[in-house]
């Protein structure tokens, strides 16, 4: 009885370890979200403490704001342009590194090289790519002209599609290594006996991947998709530092729109708050749809078995 009582007392110390997280979250997380939600229904502008509640007027104005709709479109287009090749390459590399038949040498070096872009600061990457694609003396322009692909240097940063593509490529380059390592860990968690049985039965690498590996790493793919969606909708540093939303707002994201409304002289806190709430709700809705989609197939299979 005494040992059980001491064990219970000892378990109470766990609350002290998790308390700092909850305190920080309540002060800087939950309170900020509730306060932002409240401001989205007001006409607060600047540091003025006096404001009035205006109902859903801010949201109506927001959806009639062409710049907000454009930033919304840009955000998801750039995210799709970088996430699809990002997760595809990450899966391929992870499958290669974990395939017992390939037995690749020097895996550690390649893993470090692939992950390295993820630890470079956004400011450094922005400067690097600005120099690479600079007009007219950038290395990319010089190579294309010297090889006869272009007759004269091209200003990539004045082309909407090229600008979006450059931002998407940078996001892809910076994050595919991180997804690769997560997927490698997921694939290494699969029981080797499954692969051994498949190889004994003469299954090809392709069949093993689609019948064993891919179904068993679906929870991790779901995690990668959700975290990438959340990060993609918060995309700010690369497009802001590289182009500032140019040309013609074609690289302006929702996060940039919110920042400019709140902190660059406009002081439209009510618009920024409403845009933040819309972004929050859209992410929740899309996450719920993704969760439902990933769980539909297993449910159908279980019903089919019954």
From TrEMBL:
It is found in: Cell membrane. Keywords: Cell membrane, Membrane, Transmembrane, Transmembrane helix, Transport. The chain crosses the membrane at residues 12-34, 76-97, 109-133, 173-195, 216-236, 269-294. It is a multi-pass membrane protein. InterPro entries: ABC_transporter_permease, MetI-like, MetI-like_sf. Residues 72-290 form the ABC transmembrane type-1 domain. It comes from the Bacteria. One of its GO terms (cellular component) is plasma membrane. The keyword Transcription does not apply. SUPFAM superfamilies: MetI-like. GO terms for biological process: transmembrane transport. It holds the Pfam family BPD_transp_1. Belongs to the binding-protein-dependent transport system permease family. This is Sugar ABC transporter permease.
């Amino acid at each position: 009885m005494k040992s059980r009582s001491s064990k219970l007392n000892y378990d109470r110390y766990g609350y002290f370890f998790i308390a700092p997280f909850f305190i920080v979250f309540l002060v800087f997380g939950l309170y900020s979200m509730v306060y932002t939600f409240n401001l989205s229904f007001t006409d607060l502008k600047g540091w003025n403490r006096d404001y009035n509640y205006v109902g859903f007027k801010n949201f109506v104005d927001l959806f009639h704001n062409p710049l907000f709709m454009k930033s919304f479109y840009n955000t998801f287009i750039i995210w799709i342009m970088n996430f699809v090749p990002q997760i595809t390459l990450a899966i391929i590399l992870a499958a290669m590194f974990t395939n017992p038949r390939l037995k690749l040498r020097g895996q550690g070096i390649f893993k470090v090289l692939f992950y390295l872009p993820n630890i470079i600061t956004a400011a450094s990457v922005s400067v690097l790519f600005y120099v690479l694609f600079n007009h007219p003396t950038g290395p990319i322009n010089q190579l294309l002209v010297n090889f006869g692909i272009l007759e004269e240097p091209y200003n990539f940063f004045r082309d909407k599609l090229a600008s979006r593509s450059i931002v998407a490529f940078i996001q892809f380059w910076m994050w595919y290594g991180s997804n690769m390592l997560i997927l490698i860990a997921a694939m290494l968690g699969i029981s080797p006996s499954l692969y051994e049985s498949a190889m004994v039965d003469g299954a090809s690498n392709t069949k093993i991947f689609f019948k064993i590996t891919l179904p068993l790493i679906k929870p991790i793919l779901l995690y990668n998709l959700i975290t990438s969606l959340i990060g993609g909708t918060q995309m700010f540093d690369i497009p802001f530092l590289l182009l500032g939303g140019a040309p013609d707002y074609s690289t302006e994201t929702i996060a940039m729109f919110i920042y400019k409304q709140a902190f660059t002289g406009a002081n439209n806190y009510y618009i920024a708050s409403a845009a933040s709430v819309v972004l929050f709700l859209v992410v929740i809705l899309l996450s719920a749809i993704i969760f439902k989609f990933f769980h539909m197939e297993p449910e159908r299979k279980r019903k089919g078995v019954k």
